[in-house]
């Protein structure tokens, strides 16, 4: 009797785990970087490979960091929204070109325009790993002290910008460096 029921019990347990796993939202997972300094890096710029920037570029301003790649279909869907954000706001957007070919990335920016103040080239994905990038696109908000305050996984939408990112940026801009959030 036990041998006949055992496969059904195992199947039922597997179905419970499958149901739980499929009901989780991977975007709901909060980044371990939230509240911590932006990871250290020293990367060449996409448009000017002889120049390098590091995490110090974020100091003194609230910034967006957008991990993207030319091969990323969702990034292409998100791109017009980033272009509008860059055109209509003074929010600096930095690109983290993730595991991409430089020529392909440059071609996308030539064709679609660039919303980025600067693009860091992370060909091997090591810096992206430090940021916790698991796929593109991903967008981070970094405050004036270089602290990561927010992470969005997946393509940005108008709703996410209006309800989450823009209010947070406004709050961060109105918070003095000695105040805590």
From TrEMBL:
The chain crosses the membrane at residues 6-24. Keywords: Cytochrome c-type biogenesis, Disulfide bond, Membrane, Redox-active center, Transmembrane, Transmembrane helix. It is a single-pass membrane protein. Its main location: membrane. Residues 32-174 form the Thioredoxin domain. GO terms for biological process: cytochrome complex assembly. The keyword Transmembrane helix applies. The keyword Membrane applies. It is found in: Cell inner membrane. GO terms for molecular function: disulfide oxidoreductase activity. InterPro entries: Periplasmic_diS_OxRdtase_DsbE, Redoxin, Thioredoxin-like_sf, Thioredoxin_domain, Thioredoxin_ResA/DsbE_sf. One of its GO terms (cellular component) is outer membrane-bounded periplasmic space. Belongs to the thioredoxin family. DsbE subfamily. This is Thiol:disulfide interchange protein. It comes from Thioflexithrix psekupsensis. The lineage of its organism: Bacteria, Pseudomonadati, Pseudomonadota, Gammaproteobacteria, Thiotrichales.
């Amino acid at each position: 009797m036990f041998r006949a029921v055992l496969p059904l019990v195992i199947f039922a347990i597997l179905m419970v785990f499958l149901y739980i796993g499929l009901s989780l939202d991977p975007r709901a997972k909060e980044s371990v970087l939230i509240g911590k300094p932006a990871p250290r890096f020293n990367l060449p710029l996409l448009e000017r490979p002889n120049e390098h920037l590091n995490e110090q570029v974020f100091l003194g301003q609230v910034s967006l960091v957008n991990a993207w790649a030319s091969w990323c279909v969702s990034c292409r869907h998100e791109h017009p929204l980033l272009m509008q954000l860059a055109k209509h706001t003074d929010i600096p957007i930095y690109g983290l070109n993730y595991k991409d070919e430089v020529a392909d990335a440059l071609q996308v920016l030539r064709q679609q325009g660039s919303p980025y103040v600067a693009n860091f080239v992370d060909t091997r994905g090591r810096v992206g790993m430090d940021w916790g990038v698991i796929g593109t696109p991903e967008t981070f908000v970094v405050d004036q002290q270089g602290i990561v305050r927010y992470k969005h996984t997946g393509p940005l939408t108008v709703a996410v910008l209006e309800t989450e990112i823009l209010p947070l940026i406004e709050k961060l801009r109105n918070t003095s460096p000695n105040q805590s959030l």
